[in-house]
Amino acid sequence: MNWPTSASRLASVSLCAVGLLSFATSCEKANDLGLDLPGTSPISATYLDLPLRASTVRQQPVQTVKADQFLVGRLQDAYVGTTTASTFMNLLALSSPDSLPAKYTALRLDSVILNLPFDQVYGSAARPLRLDLLPLQRPLDERTIYTSESSAATDNALLTGFEAPLNRNKTVKQRVQSGNSTDTTTTVITVQVPDRTIRIPFLKSAGTAALANSLFVAMQNAAFGQSGLDAIWKGFLLQPANGHTANIVGFPRTPSARVVFYFRGTSADGKVRARNYSLYLASLPPLTGSYSDGKYFTQITTSFAGTALAGLTPQTALPSAATNGLTYVQEGVGLATRIEFQGLDALRDDATLAINRAELLIPIKQFSNGLFPYNSGLYLYEVNDANQPLIRTSGVSTAERLIQVEGIVKLSNGSTFRASPTTVGAPAAATFPLGQNPAQYYTVSVTEYLQAYLQNRLDGELPTGLLLSPILRSATSLNLNRAQLDANEFKLRVYYSKLR
Question: In Å, how far from its chain's centre is CA 182?
Fold first, then answer.
């Protein structure tokens, strides 16, 4: 077995001698979990805590193309350093040709607004997001692979240092009903609600005004479409302004993210009408029907200078002893925690021991979610010495190896199957136990996986460690959620019974 083991370490934490704490091989035939074996009865039930060796690693690059949100901003943090997020974005001309200014005469452009709805602020929402807007030299290419480390050529900035408030409120009207089922009264009241949309007015800045006017002229051609848009505006880069370190803002995929041209024109009946025409951001969510899907990605860079992670690179790992007893997992930045089991020799070759349950306990540093929310769960990849996930082959398909859930799995189509340590498609996640408040530790059951590992039944190369990842590497989610983990208290807890 490749994972480090230490019988001497085990002796310091066990209730029994090392020689008595080994795995019951007879469980293979009777019961995969070593429970209720025929002809035997447990005479004791207790648990053993085995230590875990832990280190922080960095997985780069992070997949950010067409993610469920894009990020813009810069944030300084005493633990991880300075993280900068910028987004490269295509634009889509999807509005109906009937709404083009070309349908009207005597046109007047009133305003042009870039609307950017947001739903997440990392850092201070009391301070504005200061950003720059730059045009791309060419649209992002469908054949190019973009990641968090990618970039694209831009021209001179259209807008610099724009201050976007993040804590504004807006007044809305709501209908309130009072009375009973037979006699109700409806009252309209006004209330203040958070205004979670950044609005950039193009006509108030020379660079964006020139672009807006050029586009408006092109829209007066009835043939205006994607090619006409790309000829004038090939996409844009949104990046934090120089010196901005207050926050990073997350923008979801929504059709409300668009550039709206508000104009007046005379229609065929001679009446002057107020109309608008929209250009959509490529972050438009998938819709029913066909449209030319655009491309976008977030570039994320992190400087670890001045922090305990200063020596961390994709090629090196930092043991928890070098990071004040803590390890890190953080989405977007690519931080993950590698764990290695120790003391597994104590669980072998003793027919008097049955493993009833095994679970990982991963404590967090308490109240460390001031800047970044805790990750909702941690996935467990089987990795080699280079922290590369091992691959499982099933027929003609391959998949990265993860610890799977235990028991019966119900699929979205209603069918079910029983997961095992060698199946794919049902990854387990370490999560906070239900009702735990405040959050204290992640936990996940690894009973079947541990037995398969000890008996070399993983159908492939044995991993040298497990990687606790805050996301599935194949997922399209993107955020900066983070957990600081108390590596000194990591445990593999094994509940066992001594048999007669």
Answer: 50
pLDDT tier for residue 214 given thresholds of 50, 70 and 90: very high
Tell me the C-alpha distance between 217 and 362, whole Å. 60
Distance set, CA 74 to CA 196, 247, 253, 257, 367 (Å): 19, 6, 21, 21, 23
CB–CB of 282/89 below 8 Å? yes
Separation between Cα atoms, residue 226 and residue 280, nearest integer Å: 11
DSSP string, 42-60: EEEEEEEEEEEEEEEEE--
Range 374-399 average pLDDT: 91
d(CA 57, CA 314): 7
> Are residues 125 and 250 in contact, defined by beta-carbon separation less than 8 angstroms?
no
pTM of the model: 0.86
d(CA 217, CA 158): 18
Is the CB of residue 174 less than 8 Å from the CB of residue 188? yes
CB 164 within 8 A of CB 266: no
pLDDT in tens, 471-484: 998 788 999 999 99
Pinpoint the alpha helices (H) of 303-416: none
3-state secondary structure (DSSP) of residue 454: helix
Is 24 buried (19+), middle (13-18) or exposed (0-12) by CB count in 10 A?
Answer: buried
Between CA 109 and CA 202 the distance in angstroms is 11
Summarize pLDDT for 215-268 with one digit per residue, the tens: 999 999 999 999 999 999 999 999 999 999 999 999 999 999 999 999 999 999
Phi, psi of 453 (to 5 degrees): -65, -45
Residue extents of the structural domains in the chain: 47-60+314-498, 69-165+197-301
Picking from 163, 162, 80, the residue whose alpha carbon sits closest to that of residue 371 is 80
Distance (Å, rounded) from C-alpha 285 to C-alpha 144?
21
pLDDT digits (tens, 9 = 90+) for 115-130: 999 999 999 999 999 9
Q: How many CA atoms lie within 13 A of 297 on its CB side?
A: 20
CA distance 475 to 63: 8
Mean pLDDT of 287-310: 83
Cα dihedral across residues 179, 184, 189, 192: positive or negative: positive
Please say whether the beta carbons of 83 and 307 come within 8 A: no
Amino acid, res. 183: D
